[in-house]
Amino acid sequence: MCSKQGGKAKPLKQAKVEKKEYDETDKVNIQKKKDEEKALKELRAKAAQKGSFGGSGLKKSGKK
């Protein structure tokens, strides 16, 4: 049972994804989740533009 594998190993085939049917409540929840993610992304972008909050953070004294 000694077999040599030459070249690349072939990737495993993925199972076909079936289309899910959503009712109205599922659609509302999915849309709400997308809106929240979009709002968070915008807030992160806004926070990144402003820079750090407290300046340089903790300052150490020069004493040893």
From TrEMBL:
UniProt xrefs under InterPro entries: TMA7
Pfam families xref list: TMA7
Origin superkingdom: Eukaryota
Biased composition (Basic and acidic residues): 15-27
Region (Disordered): 1-27, 44-64
The protein, known as: Translation machinery associated TMA7
Originating species: Hevea brasiliensis (Para rubber tree)
